[in-house]
């Protein structure tokens, strides 16, 4: 099968704009029904409770490929409207997809039934029903290498490096609708605990290989330390999780880490997870939030598993909370500053 | 609900011993049936092909909680019989579960229906139907901190640190049936790309916090660099994957990384994945191996998705290959040595 | 655990009213995204195409427990607005849930975490997170027996018996918002191919047992014959399927049955299925609509699988089509009349 | 894509023979592990308990496409060795697949990736990765019509009609390894509650259409009545269920039906279900056996859900019980005789 690359890469994914729809009455109707519609409604209401709770800091966890699937603007709207205080994500969402689009590239609509061998020959990468121009992805890798080459050779948390990516976009970005850029400008920390596991990995491997003796490193322990620090500072927290994987585990773990450091850190007070996984294989992604309670991580009072796919569920949950406008009374917590201050303190000492 | 901790923690998980069963005829019968039995049989045969292929290095990917679920000996048998050349895993399997058991602790049989609030009060952690004594897990965290405290303060790959954990166990371990120990002794590299996302993270956060100015770091880029080096050295490779997540992505990515470094690295020639996930949410864990072909990572000739849960499927796949005895002609590749040699070269230069 | 029945049965399930929401722009936005949101949007648009296609008769298939879950009004709105021409369902939806509510009973909100042994002791039946008063369900069984006792002892299709249930409700019903009642009044046939597999079965077993020599029977072949006749009459057809099971299979099969009877019956021209099942176990519920094409049942041009749960997806699909208003130009096909005419013809002959 | 039919239909599905393997030690090892391996082991042991329990009658429920997938001999071995006392199934297993093979036809190995439009053109039907010659299936339909044409025109339960199919095979069958034939010879009742929903439906629609005024009918109420009678006669019962759907519901319901008829019928004492479905959509197929307890159908003492696909799990469960040999002490219950006796009594009266 021969493939016309230009034709295949012609219909761009357009990001859904939750500010254009009214989800409030719909969600409130769904609350009176059953099954996942009710779970979805309850989850949306718990997220809104987090926004209403003056003392609650909100951590958004993102697994899977949400940005390429058209959910970028949902997340940008959360950032812009003080609906989130920290983000923990897979690298795919933050680097391959958001940073990639901020460089001016796009994702395209395809189909799960395309011939993958033919796609490979045409340098087109497929994610279920979306397509990426592999040549553009290589430019993204190179840009990461360039940023790394421009920085002092020391150990960075992924959060610190992603801040540098935001700084880069402020100068060189081509699309202001960017999670990395807006989080940078609003001082919202973005963590990618498995930072090499994406386009960033490719760029940084090139950086380290070309600079054997003078390269930066990404210290995953520092990530964990910083997020734990944030928990200690924030005290009360809520988790809004799209998918499972490392982001879910990482964000849940900080309660225990804070405790080990001698801090008084309450369980995550609120927790909502959207997932298509289930608990049958004992893996974390589908494990219930009740199970997380046995580990001393999550309270069972305000927890909700929603068995749904995020492209449908996330706009409805965030759209509901957007429509309820509790966020209008929230202040930006600008948690990136706590790390800067600490850094400053350390430097001055 | 009040809980009797001693009673709850009384039935230990016992690891299944595939060397005691004959899976060869069963798998060959299943090949003539349909659905997942046939997929399982085809996957087992592809794994055996990897063992028969003199040029093929085998990378085992482990996600989820396999070791606590009784699959530890399957993996140890693979190591002992030259049935695997590198391991990429979640931290849970390697640190919280294998290293933990090597320290003399156990996992216990429970039930998914226990009251998690009561478990939390009793310091018992639950994974679906298995239980862990949280106090023992804290000792595991502390041991990691102790090991870190004993090492020079530099940037380590997770592989390097896990080697140190193996060295520690050789001195102090209480159970010789250990993946970390046996991999160390056989020079088989073990990578945990999200190394902070487990008990190791807790130990290392304590290490870094108590040694603000003189601590080691875990460089996730170095992990990626090392595994890519291994790919370049190995050339032909096969993936046997239990679950998806970061290990799957990480191991698939090295083909692209090798290419970016200018090396001629063929696609993974063989790929088998056991998972209960499906492709509907566009996430990597359930994405088909055909999709990975579009990314230039996996060949479609010898690939097989098996939709099954690993506690059932893994013993059958590995047991089949064990029974076929192609491994008796395989040599240990001892890939840890390529990193040591490189290190030595660098030191001498 | 002791249970307060009155307290448990206090929060009624309220049926969602799609006429109150605007789904048009939302669905059209989702069409530009990916994964299941795009599948949902494409499915909604195909359903709307069915409504726009003057020659297309629409068969709605209902599996699972949709009515007790709050979707009754969605289906009633479809009937009232000429958005459906025939219904094929499980007995649960039609008898235990719709007819049951038409008798004046309700479904209640519960939780999946209740103690089922305690529920049993209190005569409360649970469906995931909804509850039913078992004593009221027994009244529903008895009413079916009463209706059967009042009818001539002959072989009925489920459709014929359900018409009699509609006639009964017109006299004795307590809630006009009923699928059985409204379908009766609009002459829309409702088939339940496994009619004994629900409350109707209990009622009819009592009827037959008390009237050993003078009872009616439910001839499942007649059902299949009638639905095939409808296909022959309708020629062009589209399927909108919630869940899989017998309704999906039954409705797909009529294309082949019509052919076997020597009629020229085209493939189902349109087909949309909402399901959480997948194809891995080879069962029909999750089998793709492409697979149905190999059987000569469904065309592949306008087919869409949507991997989502019906309580979320159905209101969005039907709500979109409601908002597009193509139904305003549709006439009621009143297919019940073709069976009446045939009956009349037979009687007169 | 053009297709070579003879080549595609060349590799036959061969039925797995559990009597050739030793599953006892494997299952007993799996009992000490976790997740689905432990669930599988517990389920196998509960099935063996049913066989050991002198008072327990065993009902086997079969949904999905198990016979075409290579599980026919497992079921025939259960019949031959008094390991089952009644069968409730979808029509696909019993008519399209078992009866079909008994007529001398075969199922073939294919792939889920074939082009379904091309298959349709070649009159090949696909079930996931298996293929059927549609022309042969039409012969199966015709044979059903022939059998119907040869019988007195009255109301039959599916069980009665399937007995006639067994009688037909005894004369005309080409493969003695048949569920329908062996169940007939051993007087084991086989129920297909949605009997029109398969090849039988096609044959019977032709029968009724060609004999408008003189045809038999299939009374689904009679099925329910007979199975309830069996429950009343048997008193203590256990369910072994492959998949969910109508067979699961139907077999569970007889406890309630018996009660309604004034009989003292205990809950199903044992219940094991193998399924890949889960409870998230509130549908019966994935509903937990605990939920069935709330309905007064199943006891929670010996119940086990096994989340696995039947082609892998069923041979292991039945193979384990076969190996334990409790069946050697069981007598054949020959429940078909209770219906014959009743019939005789009715005739004599």
Structural features, described:
- Four copies of one chain form a homotetramer.
- By secondary structure, chain A is α/β, with parallel strands linked by helices.
- In chain A, 50% of the residues lie in helices and 14% in strands.
- Chain A has a six-stranded parallel beta sheet with strand order 7-2-1-9-10-11, sandwiched between helices. A three-stranded antiparallel beta sheet of chain A has the order 3-5-4. In chain A, strands 6-8 form a two-stranded parallel ribbon.
- In chain A, strand 9, helix 12 and strand 10 form a beta-alpha-beta unit.
- In chain A, helix 2 crosses helix 3.
- Chain A is globular and about 50 Å long.
- Chain A starts with a helix and ends with a helix.
- The model of chain A has no long low-confidence stretch (mean pLDDT 95).
- Chains in contact: A-B, A-C, A-D, B-C, B-D, C-D.
- Chains B and C meet through loops of B and loops of C.
Keyword list:
homotetramer; 349 residues; alpha/beta; 3-stranded antiparallel β-sheet; 15 helices; 11 strands
Q: What would you call the quaternary organization?
A: homotetramer
Form type of chain A: globular
Overall structural class of chain A, as computed from helix and strand content, comes to alpha/beta
Please bin the fraction of helical residues of chain A: 40-55%
Order of helices and strands of chain A: HHHEHEHEHEEHEHHEHEHEHEHEHH
Number of helices of chain A: 15
Strand residue content of chain A: 5-15%
Amino-to-carboxy terminus distance of chain A = 65 Å
Strand sequence of the main sheet of chain A, in spatial order? 7-2-1-9-10-11
